[in-house]
Amino acid sequence: MFNRRRFFDRRGFSLIEMLFVVALTGIIAAIAVPMMGNTLGFFRLSGDARKVSNALALSKMRAASVFSRVRVYVDWPTRSFHMETWNSATNQWVAETGGTFLSQGVNLAFNPVTVAPPNTQSTIAEAQTCRDNAGNPVANTSCVIFNSRGIPIDGVTASPTVDAMYLTDGTAVYAVTISATGMVRTWKTPPNATPSWVLQ
């Protein structure tokens, strides 16, 4: 009889119990939401750095496979990049892939960092300005060009060069560097004038 009464008892939670659960949920949400935002920001920035690094590595291999120059072309206003191959028959750059866009809040910049990663560039700077098919500089662009041996070269004299691409969202700065031998490395530092670069 006792168990039957308990089964049919339809009383619910009290108002105090409900308010306690709602307050506890609010406190947990207030702690978790900012942490989640920081985590998502980290994933966006580090993911974009990996995309740039992978595009550079792919361009290097593509140059060796087609025995021609291949470049990663970065368009600053649209915050995008794509791969292009030099067609010697027509003397022009031909886009190999569609554009890859950076995540929201991620920009191509290194400010306020003032020093390049160790044993890379002597002076911190973005990769060289791209040139059109006639050899004229294209404003608001950056290019990393690989020759048929997978070595980065400049766009004028085809001499070996050291290039880098920098990305930031204000919470950290990533550098994707290309050595004179074509080695691609990714670095990270807090956004300080005196950086502490860490190889990723």
Give a description of the structure.
It is a single chain. With 200 residues, the chain is an alpha+beta fold. The protein has one domain: 3-Layer(bab) Sandwich (minor pseudopilin epsh fold). The chain contains 2 helices and 10 strands, in the order ααββββββββββ. The strands form 2 sheets. Strands 1, 2, 3, 4, 5 and 6 form a 6-stranded antiparallel β-sheet that branches. A 4-stranded antiparallel β-sheet has the order 7-8-9-10, with helices on one face. It is elongated and about 90 Å long. The protein starts with a helix and ends with a strand.
List the helices and strands and how they pair.
Elements: H1 2-8, H2 15-66, E1 70-75, E2 80-87, E3 92-95, E4 100-101, E5 141-146, E6 152-153, E7 163-168, E8 173-178, E9 184-189, E10 198-199
Antiparallel strand pairs: 1-2, 1-5, 2-3, 2-4, 5-6, 7-8, 8-9, 9-10
In short:
With 200 residues, this protein is an alpha+beta fold. It has two helices and ten strands.
Number of structural units classed as domains: 1
- Residue stretches low in confidence (pLDDT < 50, at least 5 long) are none
Distance between the termini: 69 Å
CATH architectural type: 3-Layer(bab) Sandwich
Number of contiguous helices: 2
Helix residue percentage: 25-40%
Number of strands: 10
Instruction: Give the oligomeric state.
Output: single chain
Q: How much is the radius of gyration in Å?
A: 26 Å
Q: In terms of structural class, how would the helical and strand content be classed?
A: alpha+beta
SSE run = HHEEEEEEEEEE
